[in-house]
Amino acid sequence: MDLGIRGRSALVCAASKGLGRGCAEALAREGVNVTLVARTRETLEATAQEIRQASGATVSVVAADITTVEGRAAALAACPKPDILVNNAGGPPPGDFRDFDRDTWIRALDANMLTPIELIKATLDGMIERRFGRIINITSSAVKAPIDILGLSNGARTGLTGFVAGIARKNIVNNVTINNILPGMFETETLRKRSEAMAKADGREFAAAHEARKKVIPAGRFGDPAEFGALCAFICSTHAGFMTGQNFLIDGGAYPGTF
After folding, report:
1. Of the candidates 49, 121, 154, 191, which lies 20 to 30 Å from 215 by C-alpha distance?
2. Other C-beta atoms within 10 Å of 241: how many?
């Protein structure tokens, strides 16, 4: 299927690895010119070169922290008129909410709620003027099924979800859509680090802890970032212009609810 986005430009945040990279790779394969943003230049440059070689797409990089004013300014200077915006940032740490002070909450809100809002604010009007825009927010399956030790993520990402619900319907008339993708457990560095922490806390080997997490997924495996990227690319396509304000859960069947 031709997704109809060849020649478009995309700004993809936290794109040097994991789910952000999966999105960047999928978009590049569709002929989209991608600008990758991440903090570590060496990893970012290596990822960009691999995507160029695999897709032939134009790939630019910005080594910056997207959660800062300066980082967002650098990203937007490199890609001032994106047709596609993929908002993504590392999740806040787990823990007991009793241990979270105000500064901890503000950092979580800055990264996982306010940064996406600022980038939407900076790019939305241009998309409206050009009458094409696709905004994707990578949130979490915890938006639908909150996890007790992820209170910071539950709060910040649900806040972003509510914000998006309030503005998405207003802009689809201009062929600009805003949607969220809610990942479950994907085979990423973040997942492995959490498995390592669980193993350490339980006194188990890493392999045993990692395997135990896999067994709770009906699919019997962790997700592949390429699967996540493929979903992102479709939602960014010309075929998805009738969908906005939606939360697309991709978790291998882990969420047990009807709605």
Report:
1. 154
2. 14
